[in-house]
Amino acid sequence: MHNESLTGLVIAKNEATDLPGCLDFMTEVCAQVIVVDDSSTDSTVDIAKSYGCKILSTEMDETSGFMGLRNLGLDLVQTEMSFVMDPDERPDNTLVDSIRKAKIGNFYQVYRRNNVFGKRLDYGRFGQDHQVRLFPSITRYEGVVHEIPKLPHGAHVHHLEGTLNHYTYSC
Fold first, then answer.
1. Rounded CA gap, 86 and 11, in Å?
2. pTM
């Protein structure tokens, strides 16, 4: 069952391998999924189409980077809330349940467990990685690299139970 108030947003470039696992979750939970495709040359766009996603094909502007791509996608959102995920991330069942129970209008952070080259990273800055990923759709990103949602002054950020597993460099 999906949430009629929630849009999933994914930016992708040549993500044919990882995108299906991401979209399996997104299409199950979100009323709409938007894929912002950054000039893919593989079957990324065809995969997104097969899931019924809305697709924005564009090219990353070096001056706005990932922030620009995310904001272009957010400009297309028509629901009250957005959940942002990368193609190489997977939520556990507890996080899926938490997303379904989230209240409209709140900001939520997720615990992201980073897995690099097939090994879990439990130390350093990336060992305790919390990121705001569920928020009102009027929110926009700031920061060209390692972009983050710009929160209103004094905004309270709630924590979603569960884990978003990030499988970077899984070759």
1. 7
2. 0.92
